[in-house]
Amino acid sequence: MPESKKEQIRQAAITVIAREGFHAATTDKIASEAGVAVGTIYNYFSNKEDILQYIFQVEYEKRAAFLAELSQKELGTIAKIRAMLEMHFTKVQENPNLVKVILAENRFGRRQKENGLLGLLEQIIRTGIARKDIRPCHASIIATILFGAIEAIMARYLAAGETKSDATALSAAVEEIIGLISRGLATG
Amino acid sequence: MPESKKEQIRQAAITVIAREGFHAATTDKIASEAGVAVGTIYNYFSNKEDILQYIFQVEYEKRAAFLAELSQKELGTIAKIRAMLEMHFTKVQENPNLVKVILAENRFGRRQKENGLLGLLEQIIRTGIARKDIRPCHASIIATILFGAIEAIMARYLAAGETKSDATALSAAVEEIIGLISRGLATG
Amino acid sequence: MPESKKEQIRQAAITVIAREGFHAATTDKIASEAGVAVGTIYNYFSNKEDILQYIFQVEYEKRAAFLAELSQKELGTIAKIRAMLEMHFTKVQENPNLVKVILAENRFGRRQKENGLLGLLEQIIRTGIARKDIRPCHASIIATILFGAIEAIMARYLAAGETKSDATALSAAVEEIIGLISRGLATG
Amino acid sequence: MPESKKEQIRQAAITVIAREGFHAATTDKIASEAGVAVGTIYNYFSNKEDILQYIFQVEYEKRAAFLAELSQKELGTIAKIRAMLEMHFTKVQENPNLVKVILAENRFGRRQKENGLLGLLEQIIRTGIARKDIRPCHASIIATILFGAIEAIMARYLAAGETKSDATALSAAVEEIIGLISRGLATG
DNA sequence: AATGAATGAGTTTTCATTCAT
DNA sequence: GATGAATGAAAACTCATTCAT
Q: How would you write chain C as a 3-class SS string?
């Protein structure tokens, strides 16, 4: 039972787009990486852009599910934020290609989806304020800052070549962000 | 004798790339926006990518000069960071197209330059630690977080359409970031 | 199933290049002459120059096969040279376009192949000397002279318009060259 | 008293065309090699092709003058032919670039001029027949063969790189051609 | 006469997409 | 569903030629 054809193509596209960028990732290269014929791609996607959207969508859904679930957990707000950071930094180590694609091809036009994630994080923060886990603040600005920080750390990790600056750099980043947030948003 | 031809082309390219993205910004469109013939572009740039590099370079040099000068100023560390935030948020209001280009076309390959800026901010932070303006921390991680936060705020402002969410949103963001940093990195 | 697509394109290219020269033979014209789309050319050739190289290669291989076979035949040296002349002069009558291309586009860079033919003729001459069919001489210079003579005669035939100066002119040329060679290289 | 501008341009064109071929020899490169501005070229030539025609014309006139004068000389026919060979082989050694241009860019369209030279050599041969210096033959075919042989020898010399195969190769070629002709066209 | 910046028509090449098998 | 040859629109880039200075 091999993976479904659609999944094969998604994986192949991630590999090729991460390596060459969306524009240089031709449908021929993707098909060849996936081990299918070009025509087959069009049985599953309506065009090349659609492959990318699908990559974003699958990823968005995973993260949204994670955040939604996190939101429900019996955890302090700072602990929730820490869990979110760890999830992202684990992901960039496990699937650097995917994150490369997400970061590099994140045009304004494709950002819509992310607003959903932003809303979920915002909700976690808002709840934290209500519970007095953290001081009052603009939840949506804080959420934006957090996502910006996460992206920047991941980009830096990927740009460094993913080797030397290994897990340590990312752990340190978690602690710095948590240190900043926990003091910076402390109540009282 | 209005502006130099090279400057005309740079401006036109910013306009077209901001509107359509680098890939869809054809040399014909850029030339026509600049009011010159296609061939003229190639008297000033060796290829289309070179135009983009030049846009990044001009911008990088401006920011680097700003940060270098800021570094020397008789100002507390938090005040320096505030000045940097204000500079960026003023820029995105004054020249949203330019910032759109910088944010949207910032491929990994083109990030090199930014490392220079990162280093300058890092230096400001390191000095702040030495002076005990702020507590000990990983300067380079904090610098990365700050740039990530700035980018995310600017991207959000631009995505919102630059109209309703006007200056107020950006001012609020300055205060949130400063609030976070000043408490989060407070000494003692 | 007429001819292979690659062969269709080769034929069309010969026609167009003979008529307009390599430089003026645009890929559009070649495609249209071949009855295919421009893109199809690039499914069989990596670029325009490659079409020309292929034309030379196919022709070179035919001539090399002819000369190699001739070399083995039970024939006097002069008879072999006569056969070679007749082959060339028949070819120019049967396929003047092809010969036009070969003569007109034979840049220095593309001459490599011809050296192979030169070597084969040289071998025939060297054998002739050993057998005392002809007197000692610089085989490679004689071979060069012969090819030069053949090319010049063919060029003249083609320049004349291929009509009036028909087969007769070429037959006369065979006799003159053979007359010259047989006396000029006679033994004793 | 430097050379005339037109001559400067002719020389520069020969250098550049020999090195890069007519097509790749841009007017910019020629102007730069000549030490003038592109515009200046158009004060002396009506277009790029015209430069090449001029190169051919100057050369044609020199050779025609040489042949016309030779024709009048008190010399045996074979000696005249030898003089012609020596003239050509000296020229290729003294000005290989010029000969490269003449050989490489000798399209059918530009051959007209050469017919004049052919006629002059033909005349020398015809006179030789009348004088019984040589046996009856098709003067025009023999002339064509001779020019073909000369071109082939020169091309070979140039292709070899003009260094190792120096003057010796060319002297040997003179002797081979003369040997062939003097025996091959001997009277009686 | 000399200059060289500006021009824009013209070319090669690419590649997403289609569709007959 | 799968295939991959064929398609042709689209784009970057070149360079001979012009002309205002």
A: CCCCHHHHHHHHHHHHHHHHHHHHCCHHHHHHHHCCCHHHHHHHCCCHHHHHHHHHHHHHHHHHHHHHHHHHCCCCHHHHHHHHHHHHHHHHHHCHHHHHHHHHCCCHHHCHHHHHHHHHHHHHHHHHHHCCCCCCCCHHHHHHHHHHHHHHHHHHHHHCCCCCCCHHHHHHHHHHHHHHHHHHCCCC
> How far apart, in whole angstroms, are the C-alpha atoms of residue C98 and residue D87?
33
Instruction: Indicate the length of chain B as a whole number.
Output: 188
For chain B, the C-alpha Rg in angstroms (whole number) is 18
Q: How many CB atoms lie within 10 A of CB C69?
A: 10
Tell me which protein residue sits closest to nucleotide E19, measuring alpha carbon to C1': A39
- Which among B148, B176, B186 has the least Cβ separation from residue A141? B176
**To the nearest whole angstrom, how far is the Cα of A4 from the nearest Cα of chain B?**
31
On whether residue C50 sits in a domain, the answer given is no
Q: Measured between alpha carbons, how far is D66 from D120 in angstroms, rounded to an integer?
A: 10
The pLDDT score that the predictor gives to residue A162 is 65
Cα dihedral A122, A128, A132, A137 in deg (nearest 10): -20
Residues A69 and A110 in one domain: yes
Same domain, C64 and C155: yes
Of A86, A80, A175, A62, the closest CA to residue A127 belongs to A80
Residue C128 is assigned to a structural domain of this protein? yes
Q: Enter the tokens of residue B22.
A: 């680098």
Report the alpha-carbon distance of residue C52 to residue C32 in Å, rounded: 17
* C62 shares a domain with C39: no
Domain identity same for A7 and A70: no
Mutate to test the interface with A, among B151, B176, B178, B182 (most CBs of A within 10 A): B176
Structural domain total, chain C = 2
D91 Cβ partners below 8 Å, 6+ apart? Answer: D98, D99
* C-beta within 7 A of nucleic chain E, residues 27-46 of A: 27-28, 38-39, 42
* D70-89 tens-digit pLDDT: 999 999 999 999 999 999 99
Q: Are B141 and A176 in contact (CB under 8 A)?
A: yes
In angstroms, how far is E6 C1' from C14 CA? 38
In a domain, A135, yes or no: yes
How far out from the chain centre does Cα A176 lie? 19
Whether D35 has a pLDDT exceeding 80, the answer reads yes
Residues B33, B95: one domain?
no
Q: What is the pLDDT of residues D95-118, one digit of tens each?
A: 999 999 999 888 766 666 666 899
Nearest CB neighbour to A172, from listed B138, B152, B176: B138
Quote the pLDDT of residue C1.
46
One-letter amino acid at A90 equals: T
Residues from chain C that touch D186, judged by Cβ atoms under 8 A, are 183
CB B41 within 8 A of CB B31: yes
CATH of residue D153's domain is: 1.10.357.10
Domain region containing B24 = 1-45
pLDDT of residue D110: 65
